[in-house]
């Protein structure tokens, strides 16, 4: 049986879960894979802290170089996080002809082009199943299982923290701040949850999925990202009345020459499978021209689920190594069309919209707003006007009420122009809340 | 670029969809896989019928031998169906050192042990992604994506025909006969739907999934199978009142040394993700010790979805061939524990039950039935007794009404003993309806 030596950089929750599984489930992994996977060395910045899982002193590396320069190590597993440090380490390891397994979505989304080109040059493989949707084998499904499909759309719930928060706002009526606090107390949100809350984490993941689906690298700085920090419970309630559930969706759609990639809070019809994905679970829908609609669901984070994905990469790449192969077995590279993706500009988004205005409670205001929408060719699908008084307007002490308009499919550009006109005419006394709606017509 | 020659046996809906996709999506499949997949020959019993997709005369084989004896053919794709004919053809092809891709669940469930042993001997691979859940890449997920998991349970909706029928009984109140007729009219049920309706098709599929999950071959004749042909709309309605949806579930659970495999109509709580899988869609839940709960959802049948799975196997096995490898790359064989699975006997099933008795409308009958349940240590979780008169009893012309008992977890043996006693005491004037309930306590 072929022995595969791995070196692990990063010994936090994920790194220690990898070691733990390779210990406790050694027998079944060996039986299934025919490989003897040996953790040769592990590096972490500080060995003098409490470890999640014990490791023999002989395996503790004091420097990263001990791992990337070890001639016997076949695969370097990067589960340290961050960007600069792992970028340096991974590029060095590749130059030493190490295969790489990483859970680092930020790194791959922002520096993927460099890293994958280098891997090509040095004929090594990069496994990144753990970078997207934790334990769900979505990367393998896209690359191999659905290889015979022209993907038109891939979208899903890719961040467990924000889904936990939105679920608790929806089911328990909590405010964003309350829900975030609770998520932190339960360990579902980090002390600094910025990258989760503002949508960046989901955007990293959808950028990776978009590359595999559409065959080119993404300029991450051009991806449209909107988080959930400004979501008001009121909109969740009003959406529910219209038959919608609010989710932070990460979406990538092909429009022929262009690809639309965005992360934004999205109203989904309540019957939609993703609207039932609650709490910290993730789910990804893939639409292929032959397979139709498929969905992959599971735990998107956590030590053991993520380590499950890391080890599946180790096994698959280990099989290549055991047969003295480099990249020969790889199916579906990140740039299989050999052309960077051209992203659709925000003004060219074309979708349905939920717009909540805050309007003075006077006769005729709906007619005025509706006429501006008509002027910009925006067709109205539904309206909710509530008697409930939101508050008194600051200056005039007039009553103001929420007025919600659900549109048919419209262009983002026209929506923005219409809203600008409505606000400048003071038909809405505040900037309206705009939430995109993913619902076929 | 390596050319992979395939020969296809069977040119019905699936076979012609394989050829169609390899034609229309040739460019992307080549870009993703780096392989040139060439359909060298196709065999079907009768070329003088209307074909679903045209094929060049030069590729039409008149005998199967033209394919299995063709030295240039690398992979034989069997999409003919049946058991005896494909068994003969596949074993011959293996002896000629052809790799095999098949969509034939019946063959693999009933003759898998022979076929996989032969493949081992001749060092060829067998791809069967298309045999279970159509286009959903569940086989690859189990073998590779979830390789680092000890699977405790795998269950799901694996037959689209019966799910279409049950969905239409649930949502439209149709009778089984009406729903079946409609399914046949829409092409979702075959003219002879026996193997779908009686649960055999789902049982074939779950047996294959059980082998991969638990690492041994299954004696298919020992698998417990119950179909949906006796399902009454009344039970669907009463189940709904208790918060349950009826699905034909295929279930495989590990109990240490034994594996429980069964297909039966099952009440699932309405919140369960599988209870929302409607119409012809399939879905499989997998519970792994590290990944937790995952679900895979998509179209379980149809030409293009199934062909999508067939081609993913052709690509993966094609990569082996392109690198002059045999079975070297295979991860997770059907008998990775090198021991046949020991199946749990029916009397040792241990689950929750819905039992509908038909009882005379007289005082004290519930107490009598409850006392029999108590005698056999069966704890009652809920009761529905309806005033609605079902019918008059034949002989005595007494009124009879439905009495439903939902139990806590109980042994099948005790349930059967209790029911025997209840019926022999004429507390129930008809044999009760028994439906298993999959709901954690």
UniProtKB/TrEMBL annotation, chains A, B:
- Which Gene3D superfamilies is this protein grouped with? 3.30.70.260, Dihydrodipicolinate Reductase, domain 2, NAD(P)-binding Rossmann-like Domain
Q: Which domain of life is it from?
A: Bacteria
Tell whether Amino-acid biosynthesis is among the UniProt keywords. Answer: yes
Which InterPro entries does this one have?
Answer: ACT-like_dom_sf (IPR045865), ACT_dom (IPR002912), Asp/hSer_DH_NAD-bd (IPR005106), HDH (IPR016204), HDH_cat (IPR001342), HDH_CS (IPR019811), NAD(P)-bd_dom_sf (IPR036291)
> Where along this sequence does the record place binding of NADPH?
105
Which amino acid positions bind NADP(+), per UniProt? 9-16
GO molecular function: any one? NADP binding
Residues in the signal sequence: none
Tell me what reaction this enzyme catalyses: L-homoserine + NADP(+) = L-aspartate 4-semialdehyde + NADPH + H(+)
Q: Tell me where in this chain the ACT domain is found.
A: 354-436
Task: Provide the alphabetized UniProt keywords.
Answer: Amino-acid biosynthesis, Methionine biosynthesis, NADP, Oxidoreductase, Threonine biosynthesis
Active-site residue numbers: 205
Among SUPFAM superfamilies, the record links this protein to: ACT-like, Glyceraldehyde-3-phosphate dehydrogenase-like, C-terminal domain, NAD(P)-binding Rossmann-fold domains
Q: What is its EC number?
A: 1.1.1.3
Q: Which biological process, per GO, is one annotated for this protein? A: methionine biosynthetic process
Which Pfam families does the UniProt entry name for this protein? ACT, Homoserine_dh, NAD_binding_3
Q: Which pathway is it part of?
A: Amino-acid biosynthesis; L-threonine biosynthesis; L-threonine from L-aspartate: step 3/5; Amino-acid biosynthesis; L-methionine biosynthesis via de novo pathway; L-homoserine from L-aspartate: step 3/3
Q: Where does L-homoserine bind?
A: 190
Report the sequence similarity comment from the record.
Answer: Belongs to the homoserine dehydrogenase family.
Stored PANTHER family: HOMOSERINE DEHYDROGENASE (PTHR43331)
Q: Kindly provide the name given to this protein in its UniProt entry.
A: Homoserine dehydrogenase
Lineage of the organism: Bacteria, Pseudomonadati, Aquificota, Aquificia, Aquificales
């Amino acid at each position: 049986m072929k022995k595969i030596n791995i070196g692990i950089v990063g010994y936090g929750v994920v790194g220690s879960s990898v070691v733990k599984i390779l210990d406790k489930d050694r027998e079944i992994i060996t039986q299934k894979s025919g490989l003897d996977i040996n953790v040769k060395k592990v590096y972490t910045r500080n060995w003098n802290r409490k470890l999640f899982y014990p490791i023999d002193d002989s395996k503790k590396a004091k420097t990263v170089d001990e791992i990337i320069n070890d001639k016997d190590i076949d695969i370097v597993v990067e589960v340290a996080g961050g960007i600069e440090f792992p970028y340096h380490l991974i590029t060095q390891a590749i130059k030493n002809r190490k295969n790489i397994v990483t859970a680092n979505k930020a790194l791959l989304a922002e520096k993927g082009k460099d890293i994958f080109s280098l891997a090509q040059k040095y004929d090594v493989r990069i496994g990144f199943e753990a970078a997207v949707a934790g334990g769900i084998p979505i990367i393998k499904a896209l690359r191999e299982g659905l290889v015979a499909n022209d993907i038109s759309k891939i979208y899903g719930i890719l961040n467990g923290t924000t889904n936990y928060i939105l679920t608790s706002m929806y089911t328990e009526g909590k405010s964003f701040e309350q829900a975030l606090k609770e998520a932190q107390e339960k360990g579902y949100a980090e002390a600094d949850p910025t990258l989760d809350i503002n949508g960046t984490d989901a955007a990293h993941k959808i950028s990776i999925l978009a590359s595999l689906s559409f065959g080119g690298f993404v300029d991450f700085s051009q991806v449209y990202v909107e988080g959930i920090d400004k979501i008001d419970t009121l909109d969740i309630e009003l959406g529910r009345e219209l038959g919608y559930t609010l989710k932070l969706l990460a979406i990538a759609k092909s429009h022929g020459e262009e690809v639309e990639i965005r992360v934004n809070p999205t109203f989904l019809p309540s019957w939609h499978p993703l609207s039932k994905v609650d709490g910290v679970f993730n789910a990804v829908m893939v639409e292929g021209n032959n397979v139709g609609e498929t969905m992959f669901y599971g735990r998107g984070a956590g030590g053991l689920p993520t380590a499950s994905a890391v080890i599946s990469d180790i096994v698959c790449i280990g099989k290549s190594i055991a047969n003295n192969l480099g990249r020969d077995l790889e199916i579906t590279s990140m740039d299989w069309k050999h052309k960077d993706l051209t992203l659709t500009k925000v003004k060219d988004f074309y979708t349905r919209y939920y717009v909540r205005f805050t309007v003075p409670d006077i006769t005729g205001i709906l007619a005025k707003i509706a006429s501006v929408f008509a002027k910009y060719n925006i067709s109205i699908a539904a309206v909710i006007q509530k008697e409930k008084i939101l508050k008194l307007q600051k200056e005039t002490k007039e009553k103001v009420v929420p007025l919600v308009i659900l549109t048919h499919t419209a262009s983002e550009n026209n929506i923005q122009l219409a809203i600008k006109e409505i606000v400048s005419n003071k038909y809405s006394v505040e900037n309206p809340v705009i939430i995109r709606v993913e619902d076929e017509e």
